[in-house]
C-alpha cells in the first residue's frame, strides 16, 4: 500500500472549494480523527478515487437512507450528514480494485447534490465545527474521565489493547476526538452512529455515548465482536 507523508495529512480549510465527491454506503459511518479501511471495486467509485488522487485526495463518506436497495445503482437518498475524508494510503490491485485508508478530517452537512456530470455522485457541503458548551472546565474534565473509563471497560481485552489504541487513550485526547473514537470503535447500532455523526455539540455526543454504553453492559456478547482497527469495508 502506498505510504503517506505526515505533512500530507493536513486539511487546509482555506483551499476547500465546498464541492465534494460522495461515497455513499449503507452501513459505514466515518468520523473525524479516525481511519477507515475501504475496498473499492465498483467502476464509478474507482473513477471517484482516481479523480481524488489526481487532485486533493478528498472523499466524503455519506450514509444511504433506508430503502436504498431498490435503487442502489442510481442515486438513492442519503443522510444530510457526512464526513469529509482524506486518502492517506492506497493500493491498486491486479484486477483494478483498490484498497485504501481514508482519514476522517471534518464533519459536513450536505447542502445540495449536484447534477450527475460524472459516474460518481458529487455535492456542495458546509463544514461543521465542534461546539463545546460545558459550563466549566471541571464539568468537561469530569465527563471526559467518565467517558474514558466506560470506553476502556467495553473494549475487548482491555488489559492488552492494540498499541495504536493504547497510545491514543494514554494521551490527553480532546473530548471531541474521544467521543468520535468511541463512536467509531464501539458496537453501536447504525442509527446511533449516524446520530453521533450529526451531533456537533461535544457535550451532547458524550451524553449519548454514556447512555448507549450503559445499555451495552447488559449485552456482554457484543464486547467480543469489537475489532480495532476495523477490517476493510466493501463499497
- CATH class of the largest domain, named Mainly Beta
Q: Report the CATH architecture of the largest domain.
A: Roll
Portion in strands: 15-25%
Distance between the termini: 18 Å
Q: From the alpha-carbon coordinates, what is the Rg to the nearest angstrom?
A: 18 Å
Shape: globular
Question: Strands of the biggest beta sheet: in what spatial order?
Answer: 1-3-4-5-6
- What's the number of helices? 6
Structural class: alpha+beta
Count of all domains: 2
- Poorly predicted runs of 5 or more residues: 2-7, 220-226
Mean pLDDT: 83
Q: H/E order of the elements?
A: EEHEEEEHHHHHE
The CATH H-level superfamily of the largest domain is LON domain-like
Q: Which fold name corresponds to the CATH topology of the largest domain?
A: Archaeosine Trna-guanine Transglycosylase, Chain: A, domain 4
Fraction of residues in helix = 25-40%
Description:
With 235 residues, this protein is α+β, with helices and mostly antiparallel strands. The chain has 2 domains: 6-128, Roll (Archaeosine Trna-guanine Transglycosylase, Chain: A, domain 4), CATH 2.30.130.40; 137-225, no CATH class. 30% of the residues lie in helices and 24% in strands. The chain is built from 6 helices and 7 strands. It has helices spanning 43-53, 137-153, 163-170, 175-185, 190-198, 202-216, and strands at 19-25, 35-40, 58-63, 81-92, 98-113, 121-128, 233-234. It has a 5-stranded mixed beta barrel with strand order 1-3-4-5-6. Helix 2 runs parallel beside helix 4, helix 2 (137-153) packs parallel to helix 6 and helix 4 (175-185) runs parallel beside helix 6 (202-216).
Amino acid at each position: 500500500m502506498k505510504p503517506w507523508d505526515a505533512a500530507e495529512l493536513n486539511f487546509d480549510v482555506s483551499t476547500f472549494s465546498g464541492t465534494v465527491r460522495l461515497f455513499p454506503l449503507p452501513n459505514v459511518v466515518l468520523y473525524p480523527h479516525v481511519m477507515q479501511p475501504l475496498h473499492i471495486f465498483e467502476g464509478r467509485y474507482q473513477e471517484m478515487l482516481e479523480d481524488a488522487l489526481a487532485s486533493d485526495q478528498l472523499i466524503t463518506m455519506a450514509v444511504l437512507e433506508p430503502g436504498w436497495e431498490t435503487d442502489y445503482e442510481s442515486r438513492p437518498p442519503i443522510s444530510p450528514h457526512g464526513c469529509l475524508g482524506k486518502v492517506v494510503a492506497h493500493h491498486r490491485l491486479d484486477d483494478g480494485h483498490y484498497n485504501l485508508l481514508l482519514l476522517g478530517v471534518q464533519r459536513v452537512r450536505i447542502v445540495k447534490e449536484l447534477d450527475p456530470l460524472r459516474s460518481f455522485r458529487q455535492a456542495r457541503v458546509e463544514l461543521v465545527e465542534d461546539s463545546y458548551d460545558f459550563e466549566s472546565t471541571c464539568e468537561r474534565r469530569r465527563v471526559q474521565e467518565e467517558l474514558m473509563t466506560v470506553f476502556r471497560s467495553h473494549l475487548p481485552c482491555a488489559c492488552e489493547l492494540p498499541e495504536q489504541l493504547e497510545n491514543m487513550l494514554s494521551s490527553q485526547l480532546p473530548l471531541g476526538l474521544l467521543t468520535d473514537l468511541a463512536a467509531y470503535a464501539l458496537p453501536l447500532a447504525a442509527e446511533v452512529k449516524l446520530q453521533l455523526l450529526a451531533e456537533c455539540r461535544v457535550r451532547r455526543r458524550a451524553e449519548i455515548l454514556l447512555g448507549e454504553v450503559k445499555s451495552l453492559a447488559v449485552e456482554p456478547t457484543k464486547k467480543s465482536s469489537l475489532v480495532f482497527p476495523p477490517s476493510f469495508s466493501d463499497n
